[in-house]
Structure formats: structure tokens, C-alpha cells
From TrEMBL:
InterPro entries: TR_Rrf2-type_CS, Tscrpt_reg_Rrf2, WH-like_DNA-bd_sf, WH_DNA-bd_sf. This is Rrf2 family transcriptional regulator. Pfam families: Rrf2 (PF02082). Signal peptide: none annotated. It comes from Lacipirellula parvula. The lineage of its organism: Bacteria, Pseudomonadati, Planctomycetota, Planctomycetia, Pirellulales.
């Protein structure tokens, strides 16, 4: 929870009725915000590339960078409000 607070996704509320709530409106928060706060998307291609020739390493790294960019863009398009059932 601390990472979500530090990342600006949640805010803590003190007191008897305290707890956590969204730091912004649900239509202003995306899945990308949550992922970035919890564990930034990092490509672990080092181990994969160790056994490859340098030219192949570059191709693999570029492919993973493209996938990472695509994932971030797609996650940024999904708002928390989109995930709630209708009427909630």
C-alpha cells in the first residue's frame, strides 16, 4: 500500500474510519499509474541475451523495448473507472 501512496494512486486516511482511498478520481487514474507505482515495467533481457551474438542481442533488446512501450501505452488507456461494473 505504501508504494501506491507514494506513487500518488492512493492516499491514507487516519482515524477510526481511516483506511485508504483513491488519490484522484477513478477516471483520472489508469492501470499504467498502478503498475508504475507498484513495480515499474522493466525488461529482463540480460539473461536472455547472454548466449546471443551482439547483433542478435540488439534485435532482441529493440523488440522488448517496443513491447514495453506498447504495454505502457495500452495500460495508460484503461482508466480505473472503466473497470467498475455499471451502476457502481
Amino acid at each position: 500500500m505504501r508504494r501506491l501512496v507514494k506513487g500518488g494512486v492512493l492516499e491514507s486516511v487516519r482515524g477510526v474510519a481511516g483506511g485508504y482511498r483513491l488519490a484522484r478520481a477513478a477516471d483520472q487514474l489508469t492501470l499504467a499509474d498502478i503498475i508504475a507505482a507498484l513495480d515499474p515495467i522493466e525488461t529482463e533481457v540480460g539473461l536472455l541475451c547472454e548466449s546471443l551474438e551482439p547483433a542478435s542481442q540488439q534485435v532482441v533488446r529493440q523488440a522488448f523495448e517496443g513491447l514495453e512501450g506498447d504495454a505502457k501505452r495500452r495500460l495508460a488507456q484503461i482508466r480505473i473507472s472503466d473497470l467498475r461494473p455499471a451502476g457502481v
